[in-house]
Amino acid sequence: xxxxxxxxxxxxxxxxxxxxxxxxxTGEKVVVLGPSGSGKSTMIRxxxxxxxxxxxxxxxDGEDLMEPHAKLKKIRQEAxxxxxxxxxxxxxxxxxxxxxxxxxxxxxxxxxxxxxxxEFLDRVGLADKATAYPGQLSGGQQQRVAIARALNxxxxxxxxxxxxxxxxxxxxxxxxxxxxxxxxxGITMVCVTHEMGFARQxxxxxxxxxxxxxxxxxxxxxxxTHPENxxxxxxxxxxxx
Length: 241
Fold this sequence. Notes:
- Keywords: ATP-binding, Nucleotide-binding, Transport.
- InterPro entries: AAA+_ATPase (IPR003593), ABC_ATPase_HisP-typ (IPR030679), ABC_transporter-like_ATP-bd (IPR003439), ABC_transporter-like_CS (IPR017871), MetN_ABC_transporter-like (IPR050086), P-loop_NTPase (IPR027417).
- GO terms for molecular function: ABC-type amino acid transporter activity; ATP binding; ATP hydrolysis activity.
- This is Putative glutamine transport system ATP-binding protein.
- It is a single chain.
- By secondary structure, this protein is α/β, with parallel strands linked by helices.
- It has a domain at 2-87 and 157-237: Rossmann fold (3-Layer(aba) Sandwich), CATH 3.40.50.
- The chain contains nine helices and ten strands.
- It has helices at residues 40-47, 72-78, 94-104, 110-123, 139-151, 169-183, 196-202, 220-225, 230-239; strands at 2-11, 14-24, 29-33, 55-60, 63-64, 79-82, 157-161, 188-192, 205-210, 213-218.
- Helix 3 (94-104) packs across helix 4 (110-123), helix 3 packs parallel to helix 5 and helix 5 packs parallel to helix 6 (169-183).
- It is globular, with a radius of gyration of 18 Å.
């Protein structure tokens, strides 16, 4: 479903991704862990070309995104992304936020997009907020709306870039609960996060990154109890007591 091969990315002279190799199977739940500045967010943005690598190959659902005529629009619809910030339109209601992309990008009729949007709002527990505006919601509610908005594009892949990092501590669990439920639907997921409990509960596989490299990959049980890489051991020693 997703393959990154020898991916390198520079920001000026800063070598952010160094020969990154990752493969994610259809339906797999992969959680990417690592210290801040390790290249995690840059890597996940390369999956749908929100950040274009300087070299290497990125293949998503059989499409080589590094090719000049790659169908980026199609892939970005199939690989929906949820960011740290919610990026909701403040002047639109919650339901309008969910409906605008299916209507404008996919050409779906508004009533169909709204019906589907209501179903996803119900899934994230916010059907009663359909006519509210983002500014009337808590941070946790806004992030759940952002997840519902991504789902309303009916993607094959969900990408999460530290979706709880901008939330107050008491709001984090409500977002994680939605993500856990989503993981059980069988959708392919790649999630960059610092939430170790979520990684243990949901991940089929954990990828550990540091200094722009993938240093270890394995099951949550293996990674959290028997990490082999010294940098991974150091990371875990600081966050797990």
